[in-house]
Write a structure and sequence with these properties.
With 363 residues, the protein is mainly β. The chain contains 5 helices and 27 strands. The protein starts with a strand and ends with a strand.
Amino acid sequence: MQIKFVHVFSICLLGVSLQAQIWPEAVSDRQFWDDQKLITVSVTDRNIKVEGPGLPRNGRSHQLPDGFRYLAFTEGAHYAMRRENGASGRSCVIFSSTDGKSWTPVGKIGGDITGFVPLGNGRFFAYVSLESLTDGKTGSHMALFRKNDKGDLIQDSLVPYPLSVPLCQFTGKRSPEGKPFFEIPGQWMVIQQTFFEPPVVLKDFICVFNRQTGWVLVFKREDGSLKRTVKVYSSIDEERIKKDGATLEVGLLCLQPTRDGDLLIAARIEDAVLHSRKLFPSSPDKLLPGQNPFDAEKAFIPEQRNSVKAWPDVLYWRLDPETGDLRPDSPQGLPAKIGSLEELKRFRFRMRADNTPSMHGTH
């Protein structure tokens, strides 16, 4: 069954703005807990490693099949998806595996979804990045899907972003094929980055996060309903995003699940997020005549270095998703300060099987 997508205009405006901000050079390895066992999925070599009690000292590893994209470990199984092109267009097939070796298809959807997380009630939490899902009346980048009698995944309901107004707004225009055009207003454009990275899946919750606003949306893993919205930066509320969203620097550096179901967060301090791009503007105005904005990263480096020099501190937070309690943490082995721009861009940590964190590559 072909799902309905709508075009979102704002993505065309992101390129230069994103390049001026200090983004990680690579996404962190994805991690999940199966009781006392730790599952780590490498983003570089597509390796699925399971460590913990009853396993060899170095764990047990399996390679993700070609063309597969890992989704999550939940409900006692690995889940992955594969995009396919057919006569009716692109589709996504979801597979599951209990051992990481043999994969069984569990559902198919007509359309191009960025990612899914299976829920405890048999439904799927889905998200898209470039285009919005629609129910014909409104649009959203998140939705719940269910399986029909034919085994196809069909959209059940949209999941709105927790703003006082819809994130995706209908422009009143349609394509020649009848598709409605939705638009993310400029003041909310920063929120679209939320959907370019996979959520962090905890024991009982799914955490969807935005690196610039510091908002963490906590959804129940049982049914996909929104439990709460946690703001890592207390001053960045809806009004602040509407006013200053385009000038917010990247704040959340890395997020990983802990064995006890919490979320461990590494972040730059609030002043760096609020003031970095205002005091050290990295804007297209500094480009040379005729210089391509998408190839102009070097023009922004001096101001980015000044930002790191002014605010080198890294803060750590432990979020209890059940209560919303966000408390400071001081994990051993993780740095309290960033020494350079290059170090900031490479900042990644992951959990060990003993539930202690270490910087990526130091295992």
